[in-house]
Amino acid sequence: NRFFLELHKKDKSSKKPSIIIQIASAVNNEHQLKASKIEFHRMKFREGI
To answer: Would you say the pTM of this structure is higher than 0.90?
Structure first.
């Protein structure tokens, strides 16, 4: 996730938020959401719920 953080730092230094960075942020959040859902299902499966 280092690439995303570098983009974010550059974004803060410029006044206008970059559309590319906004998209990258959205994609990143989406990915984290999916990952956490998968993890949640794994936990449920392990506990046999």
So the answer is: no
